[in-house]
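Run log, item B.
One chain of 885 residues. Sequence copied directly from the ordering sheet:
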Amino acid sequence: MKQSMIISAGFPVAASLQSWMPGSVQDNITLHWLGDKVPQLSIGATWGVPWPQGAVRKEHGFVLESKGAGVNLQSWPLAYWPDGSLKWTGHAIGANKGLTEQLVLKRVTKAAAAGSGSVNVKEASDNFVVDNGILQCTIQKNGAPLISTISKNGKVLATKGILVLQVQNAPEAATIHDHYESNIQEVLVEQSGPVRAVIKITGHHVNTTQRYLLPFIVRLYFYEGSEAIRILHTIIYDGDEQNDFISGLGIRFNVPLEGETYNRHIRFTGEKEGVFAEAVKGLTGLRRDPGEATRKAQIAGKKVEDVSAIKDNLKYIPDFGDYTLFQPTPDAFEIQKRTKEGYGWIQSAYGRRASGTGYVGTPTGGLAFGIRNFWQSHPAQLDIRNAHTTEASVTMWLWAPKANPMDLRFYHDGMGQDTFEKQREGLDITYEDYEPGFGTPMGVARTSEAQIWVLSATPDNAYLSQIAGYIQDPDTIACATNQWQLAGVFGGNWNQAVSPSPTKEQMLKQLDFYFDYYRQQVEDRHWYGFWNYGDVMHTYDSDRHVWRYDVGGFAWDNSELSTDLWLWYYYLHTGRKDAFRMAEVMTRHTGEVDVHHIGRFAPLGSRHNVQHWGCSAKQLRIATVANRRFYYYLTADERVGDLMQAEVDAAFTLRTIVPGRKIGQPVGDPDGKYAGVGFGTDWGSLAAAWLTEWERHGTPLAKDRLLNSMQTIAAQPHGFFTGSADMELATGKFLPAPADKISVSHLSAVFGLPEICMELVALIPMPAFEKAWLQYCTLYNATPEEQTAVLGKSLGKLNLRQGHARLTAFAARVKQDKKLAARAWEEFLGGEAGIKKMSARLDAVNGPAVLHPIEEAPGVSTNAVAQWGLTAMAMLDLAGNAYNE
């Protein structure tokens, strides 16, 4: 159900943001299941909780209560305040625990918080064994199988869990088709219980000639009392896109089977609650009736005891051992089956959007398996093979072999753009920043999620459908929306209450409208697919009634002007589950696909383009930790933690991949001590990485770089208006720029810089930095006369005035300047270089003007919406009581 922000009275204004940080100690925090609907089942849950500075120290622990009863809880630190107290804590509970409308997390003494649980990890010379009280899973330290066996109640139900990869040497008629399997390089126990265990496995895929391809990172998650194992699967592309065409990428397990083939069952889930259910040897629909009890038992997945009526003819009923569910597009799937390899496939079923879960087993147990976002991440495929033998195999294909292979080649031949001058001319017409050799997928990644469920019996259709629904939408636990303000996190800029007015009510409705519109655009425009899901498009083409998917830099958005931040702040204000989910998949996408994780461009990201990696502008602003830290702190996600840590030394890449090389910025020394760093998109991204590394791990180097960079920006002749300087990479110290240097870009403060600086000013008592940032916030939208009075010259015509209104509002809040607050509202409502008039208008467009009926919002662009949304929320937070019309 849609939720909106509440307008009431404002957070007290203070002369310095330091006093914004709430000082009250919280003993109890009320939690709820995301979306306010209690799940019917859970394999376990992990979440993060923020605390006020000083509230939680080393002597404290936590307990969790559900309807007054204690729940086994595992807790760990996620981040610290500068005084050493805990800022964020991670928590986990086991399967089917805490399934109530309200949970209470209590801060207690460590002695009172002594936890219990049944999850433990034991190490042997060549493996680890994880026991969660239900399952026993053996994880290998080397070789091909990641998991050698999974047992339940002493019975082995799955073996040889490996990664599989198929590669061909051409996109269509391949002459070479190669097969790879996983090869483990390292296994790391990240958590070992008592409620949750996490095992991280890294390696490569390897073929029979010992060629290594596609590094992988797999995390296995185990929860107390759970029948399921969560799998987080990441691949990094390191192939040659001209010759390595991925034709299959998957996770495979073997499933031991026993007994008669008529007691072996196959299941696939389709759309909504639909289930495809058959037996390997079917006993229904025969010319001779085996009996009603026999037929009913087989349909229900129960053991068939009596086949005496057809015993002599059983051998003539075919065993169908192979099954495939194939989802080639977001709108169609098919199910096929055959008796065995070498014989023809027959069509079994069709549908639209499969929820992507399968099962193979017997009445005494088997394996359910499913891929999250199955149809959204097409082409996907589920295979069951050899179910007529003593050992079946199941494969969760993240990229389906039945589909065309991945074609990651650049989409044009350069069109003669062999000089910077020609490339700038190309930029002028299609907005594409092209440079030969830069539009490569080398180093981009993709993270997928799957689950396997080890079951003691063939599930009935309703339960399997329930499992499939959970795999697609795994429930998590969340705080109330006022907890961000109570804890003072993300800058502490949160209003519990703002004086109501018609304009502010309209702003709230407009915020809802924009989110709802983009959520629906994902569906209407089919922004789905393995490499695309999670992103949105940049700019609309009103003539063709389509987003400009094929026009250079107007196509995929790739975080441009902080779309990620808009979605996350919208969730933090509203608590809407659908906003969380949309922000979640965007975080997964923009942090993986839009960033180069290995190779010459690592760890920079790629600017918006027809292909996510296609732009030659490789920049920190796309890879920025500012876009990731919300999801990390709210869910304790280890993979996002990896991504954030990878950005700590990102500035070193700027020596060779120079952001301003096409406009005269010299290429640096690859082995040098310095790199040219802009104070906007570059430093804002570095500051987010250093701040997050410092508060997560207490890393002295990150802290020193952050503080040194803040001090030396403040010491520049014109502070942030100096624009850029050479930075000593080891220390983060900027060299002094020339005294007369003034450089301002409208892009500097639209990629997370305002949000990070607000947080830094609130967190770190550094008056010189606060003064420099407030100067920038005050003067960017000021009159030429005001700019000249301070800087000695006017800044000229600057862009994105509306988006920068939130900077003005921030300065007004800190300075307690009512005149400045009024100016901020004037800038915001004036709409210059943004959205001038709030409107919820939707125009219907039907055939034959378009392929499918659509709704379009006139004048909407993602840049404008993201900046308007961020600024609207900031206006309510920072200057909500300064405007009452």
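Observations after the first pass:
- Confidence is low (pLDDT under 50) at residues 1-23.
- The radius of gyration is 28 Å.
Flagged for discussion on Thursday.
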